[in-house]
Design goal:
Layout (H helix, E strand, L loop, with lengths): L1 E8 L3 H11 L5 E5 L12 E2 L1 H8 L4 H7 L6 E4 L5 E4 L17 E2 L2 H14 L4 E3 L3 E6 L4 E5 L4 E9 L6 H6 L4 E18 L6 E5 L5 E6 L6 E7 L10 H12 L5 E17 L4 E2 L2 E3 L5 E2 L7 H20 L8 H22 L9 H6 L29 E3 L5 E3 H4 L5 E6 L10 E6 L9 H6 L6 E4 L5 E5 L2 H9 L5
Parallel strand pairs: 1-2, 1-10, 2-7, 4-12, 10-17, 21-22
Antiparallel strand pairs: 3-6, 4-5, 8-9, 9-10, 11-14, 11-15, 12-13, 13-14, 15-18, 16-17, 19-20, 21-23, 23-24
Helix pairs in contact: 1-4, 1-7, 7-8
């Protein structure tokens, strides 16, 4: 019987980023997926700014930006023939502290392709056509049977296998919530003729049902989203059905669907688990929470899950105290609950977003304040648990460098503000902002509202861990989260 440190089940964005976060820290990881090969559908098509920041920590944000689009104005055609245009990112521009200010329109298959390449660079590849058949969790490992007939021992098992998660079901975890059969959508990626690629097109069908056509960047296709209800009867996602829906919205012969690349039916599900960890089994992404697609939150929330879990599990496998893993559920479960509420609210508005929604959707405000890894702080600036801001600094020879560049690699990062020596703290990537790292325009000091001699510790996932003037406090904090 073979053995591996971590088995990840599911090779969507959540599973891929979890595996990559582990593999870059030297963890032996296998990742399997029941599908015969990479999926081709656009599915989740929005990458939010905070997610781009997290992926920038792996050095892949530039590749994603080159393949996507950060500005796509929504154009509503009203039943009376009038047209309303809304650019919710109007006036939103990158800043020194927030280099990724706008959401990125990008088909999910393109993101997965990028993450598979990232994972391959760490020496791991997806084993497609391989599903989980059975598992039994023990005190020291999880015994697993795969569809290939292979049996193995995994030190830990991560279930990232979607809303119908086999891992969750075999682990006996309830999926609490509701399914509403009366709320459905037909989705699909199509090559088509009749409309331009300059807008996110949205309108209503004759019965009031909502339909949108969104051009997918760096492709020749659109994603079609069509709301259906009882008045449509029991219809199936066939090419003829989609054409009939488009004809109902636009008129016959206006838009012609030439080729279906991927089709799917979506049913309203609002569900989540009440625990993310069952011994040596951990749940992430849609296996732990599903909700409405509005606001592009599902894929992004799963990626945040994967990175949060990945750095903590890697730390434990490299010698950190095991209770660190309990903080995964403590931090991420409340985030999933909040996302369920946000996506439910946005679904009711049919893409009629308000400018204020951008802040909630962006993820830039996600915080773990008050959580188990976030000690109290009564000063100004980002608190422990908040996202760490970026800033443009320079090396003593004048070469520019961003703080986000220094935080790549998944290590702990320590900044000391003011001229003076760095404390002797093992296991961190440390910089003195004022000595070995210059802040000529005071952007870093301003972003953190930092004082001289202040120490700011940044977690591997780019959140503030600790703010203090006491080097001993940094050492004590790290003792609970690293092998030091």
């Amino acid at each position: 019987m073979t053995a591996t440190e971590v088995l990840v089940v599911g090779a969507g964005p959540t599973g891929l980023i979890t595996a990559a976060t582990l593999a870059r820290k030297g963890v032996e990881v296998r990742i399997v997926d029941a599908q015969p090969g990479p999926q081709i559908g656009s599915r989740g098509k929005g990458v939010q700014p905070r997610t781009l920041e997290l992926l920038d920590g792996f050095g892949v944000a530039g590749r994603l930006l080159a393949a996507g689009r950060t500005r796509l104005v929504i154009r509503y055609a009203n039943p009376d023939g009038s047209v309303h245009e809304h650019d919710m990112t109007k006036g939103v521009e990158p800043t020194p502290t927030t280099p990724f200010a706008r959401p990125l329109v990008l088909p999910q298959w393109r993101l997965e392709e990028t993450l598979r390449d990232l994972l391959a660079g760490y020496g791991a590849r997806v084993e497609f056509g391989t599903s989980l058949v059975d598992m039994r969790s023990g005190d020291d490992d999880v015994t697993v049977e795969l569809s290939s007939g292979e049996r193995l021992h995994a030190g830990w098992l991560v279930g990232a296998d979607g809303g119908s998660s086999t891992v969750r079901k075999l682990a006996g975890v309830s999926f609490l919530g509701v399914t509403r059969e009366e709320q459905q959508m037909l989705l699909g990626d199509f090559r088509l003729d009749g409309i331009d690629r300059d807008w996110w097109h949205a309108r209503r069908r004759s019965g009031g049902q909502r339909l949108s056509l969104v051009p997918l960047p760096a492709t020749d296709s659109f994603v079609l989203q069509a709301e259906i209800n009882e008045s449509d009867g029991d219809i199936e996602p066939t090419p003829a059905t989609y054409q009939a829906l488009v004809d109902d919205a636009y008129g016959r012969g206006v838009v012609t669907l030439r080729e279906a690349l991927w089709t799917s039916r979506w049913r309203y599900n609002e569900r989540m688990v009440d625990r993310y960890r069952i011994g040596r089994i951990l749940l992430a992404g849609d296996a732990a929470h599903v909700h409405a697609p509005a606001g592009a939150q599902g894929m992004n929330t799963g990626i945040h899950d994967g990175i949060n879990l990945g750095w903590k599990l890697a730390s434990v496998l490299n010698g950190a105290p095991e209770p660190l893993l309990d903080t995964y559920e403590q931090e991420r479960l409340p985030m999933a609950a909040a996302v369920l509420g946000l996506s439910k609210e946005l679904l009711t508005r049919f893409a009629r977003f308000e400018d204020s929604d951008l802040d909630a959707m962006s993820g830039l405000g996600i915080t773990y304040r008050g959580g188990p890894l976030s000690p109290p702080w009564d000063g100004a600036g980002p608190h422990p648990g908040d996202r760490s801001p970026d800033a443009l600094c320079s090396w003593p020879d004048g070469r520019p460098v961003r703080l986000f560049e220094l935080q790549r690699g998944g290590d702990w990062t320590l900044y000391r503000f003011g001229v003076g020596p760095l404390p002797d703290v093992a296991g961190v990537n440390a910089h003195s902002i004022g000595s070995d790292l210059l802040d000529p325009h005071a952007t870093a000091r301003s972003a953190y509202q930092a004082h001289d001699d202040e120490l700011i510790l940044i977690r591997p996932d780019g959140h503030v861990g600790l703010r203090t003037r006491d080097a001993a406090a940094v050492t004590a904090y790290l003792a609970a989260v690293t092998a030091s």
